[in-house]
Amino acid sequence: MVNSRLLALLAVPAALALPLARPDEHSLAKCDIHFEKPVVTDPEELKSYQPTQNDDGGSTTTTSSSSSSYSYSFATPLPQSPSSGSSTAGTSTYQCFSNGNYPAPSTWLSFTSLWSLHASAITTANSAVSAIDTGSVSGGGSGSSTTTQILHDKILLVASDTSVDARLILATILQESGGALDAPCTGTGNCGLMQGPPGSASYDGGSGDAAASIEQMIRDGVQGTPGTWPNGGPGLEYWLDVYGGDEPWKALRAYNTGSVPDGGDLSVTNGVGTESYVVDVANRLVGWDGVQRGSC
Description:
InterPro entries: Lysozyme-like_dom_sf. It is built from 10 helices and 6 strands; from the N terminus they run αααβββαββααααααβ. It is mainly alpha-helical. The protein has a domain of 201 residues: Lysozyme (Orthogonal Bundle). Helix 8 packs across helix 9. The longest helix has 15 residues.
């Protein structure tokens, strides 16, 4: 009689040699991303809009060459850290936030503190942009202010005109352009400081009113642009209204990708956008300097 243990040993290599199952064409087809419905932009419709797990108010798509491809917003990739978990660069720590432990607004740095942390880098990013003539100043005469100070003031202005926290606007600007006024457009016309929706403005320093140009770039990112996708689209304020402004994380995912593919895992992008986008912005809000990203 053949020893049963010997038979078991002989069976192991045979099992390992079996070919792995390959996905068929029908399975692969399920990976395609398609528009589910147009983005809701009408204020009256928005009042009764109730997003569900499979209804994210529009979506991004990567389709075949016979149809258009659109990405709502892309952040400039940051250097990856070889470490796991959180990483520290100087006094700046990157934390691996996830659903359930994103920082509450009460734990965010103040706008003044966030601005102080990044003002030098923003100034450097705009070193090639000349000072802005601000016209008359108190006491008579004329004066000029750096683009950095104008950016600071315009963020506060747009925040006061909308329901969007100035800290969130600043963090999104840092994520999208690093505060560089002349950041190039990406995707399908995603331009300006916030790489806003299609039709968003780029910096126009030669317009004679550069301060207005800075304000317009911020408004496009926050309030959106006229028209519907792919000729226009909603801004950050819209997504905050849809998903709730007190916890902006789903809104940030939608701002970057045009939808929330997985409400339980905000790193999911379905291949469009930046996986670490939400965690990056969350870290910026609590003091990360953007230099070294942790590997989460």
